[in-house]
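Internal ticket #5521
Category: modeling
Description: The requester needs a full-assembly model to guide mutagenesis choices. All entity lines are attached below as received. Residue total reported by intake: 714.
Assigned to: D.W.
Attached entities:
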Amino acid sequence: MNKEGRKSKGRIWTRREFLKIVGATTGAVGATLGFPPILKYALGDTPIKIGVPAALSGTVAILGTDFRDASILAMEQVNAEGGILGRKVEIIVRDTAGTAAGASTRAKEMIESDKVDFMCGANLGHEGLAVHEQTYPRKIVNMCNTMSDPITALPTFSKYTFHPDIAPYMLGNVMGRFTAKNLGKRWYFLIADYAFGWQNYEGFSKVLKDEKGENLGVSPHPLGTKDFSPYIGKVMGSGADVLVTINVGFDQVNSWKQLREFGAFEKMKIVAALFQPGTIWAVGEEVVMGGYGGATFWWEAPETKSVADVFEKRFGRPPTDDALSQYESVLELCDAAKRAKSLNSDKVIEALEGHKFKWAKTEEYWRECDHQAIQDIYILKAKKAKRKYDTFDIVEKIGGEQLTRTCEEQGHRKDAKGKWIRHQ
Amino acid sequence: MFNITLRVYLLQIFIGLSLGVIYAMMASGLSLIFGLMRVVNFAHGSFYMLGAYTLVYLISLIGNFWICLLAAPIIVGILGILVEVSGIRRLYGTEEFNPLLLTLGLNYVFVDIIRIFFGLGGIGSSIPKGLDGMVNLGFIMFPAYRFFIIVFGAAVLFLVWLFINRTNLGMIVRAGTKDNEMVQMLGINIRMVWTLVFGLGITMAALSGALIAPLTGVMPEMGSFMVIEAFVVVVIGGMGSFAGSILAAILVGQVIGITNLFYPQAGTVAIFVLMVVVLLTRKAGLFGEG
């Protein structure tokens, strides 16, 4: 191109001018496009994500729904107070269908695709272990909110996993002592054939042995059993004073309903390791009439009433033990991050260990050695409801470390400096 | 281990019988559909579930258990006919896995529809008044509703047996099971018979779901395991054999009942062991041909 030609198109830029203009333009465009995310981050538009693996379908779908709703309530309350670290909290719920495979896949998705900062959930023992296998290798703090014995004991335990729910052993211990003292010492067991059933059974059996009672046998049934009649003949012929049922969700209400149908309530006392109000309310309170069972809370207890009322107003039903535990777990995670002033896992763990808290139940604390939430266990007796949801009376409330195995029994050891040794 | 008394044995036998009747209604429908149309109906469990939900829903509207027990299977049976006419019929004569895949897909569709309309959790249902107590059989006390299931189920199965073995239409069904092409060559509208039999099979599945609902409540996934057990019964009895599936159902019910009495841990696996034993000794099942 000749000089004339260049003139006709305007002035000629030097290399330095060109670079300046390009640099300024890039800077301006970059500022326009790049700053908003930074500003968004600063203003809290990039949420802190908490993954909730929950069984929204399958035999314990009611429990999964409770997890979801309780997480949402906790999130709304935290966000209403400005979120944490200047950022909003976002709950991401994924359906595990109550299976270990589902829990594992959903947890992996939430970690790798949704980039969750924390994990909090899992309804069933096998789901809890499956999620744990996904979180601890990636150093993600996980509130494993299912009843599980191995999750807090070596070799499974990891410093990244906390256990807000009670352990089956604790439940078996409490309900076992109450049953032996008040209801009889010749027991037969009807239990769900998975971790929760067998771990509770171990707690009950140990108490029965200590109390010099008689174990007349155990009938394990598959998770999701609809018709319990094949198990009932043996129960009826066992000659037991007490039938201990260790199952959850629809398994619990179906087994009790069918035991009543066969007249078992006239022959023996019936005890549930854990009462699950959600499913009991779904099928009608008369199902558990005359029975005893354990619980991690009762919604009409003074320490819980105010939170229970807020939950009922928001979702049209009172919270269950799963809902309360999940609600507390989400709040504890958020509060720990707030206290730690960081999302860094090690700092959050430090903020949680030994911390005492009271959100919706009597005071609890995180035992440092195994991350078990030490808490009260309630013993409830089913009664004739005067109004909806008024299903139980509290018979007794027992708490403290006496309920659980010692740190040493869990396999935990201290190093020379007095710190708990962490293997993973 | 405690001593098992004669009363406990008898109780367990009657429990096995009540289970067997439910299995028989499920499995005989499945067997009829396979025998005549060579369709492995994987949606059978979801029709069982739909029968249960329809009963519970109708009771919430009408209140009368007996009317609802009659209406629920008929409604679901009509739905089954619609499914056959609009979907499965188009796949006759194609590869055998085509209707299998269609019914497998329909199973998921029905379960999800129920989840959307009735929620993920289940719904409770009560035993009707008058059948909520126990009956004295002379040698044992037995739950009245389960006794009703045995008697009512046996009556239904007898009527279906009469239909198949003592009516002209039943004769066509039997002939169609043995040689479809020959029946068509005789000028019989076999497609109409297929539709009718499909509807009958679905009605029986829905009836067994409706009968079990007051005992177990209802859940969207309730048919999933039931259909597996029903398939086991059909395989043991012989694919396509109505009498075989009834006999196998009673046998399976008793095996479950007695196994649970002696070794409950094996209660579930026992029927699969039975299936393996039967297949190893008679590969076409107890009453199957081939």
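Resolution: model delivered.
Comment from assignee: Chain B touches chain A at residues 1-2, 4-5, 7-8, 11-12, 15-16, 18-19, 115, 120-124, 126-127, 132, 134, 141, 143, 145-146, 212, 215-217, 219-222, 225-226, 256-257, 259-261, 264-265, 267-268 (CB under 8 Å).
Ticket closed.
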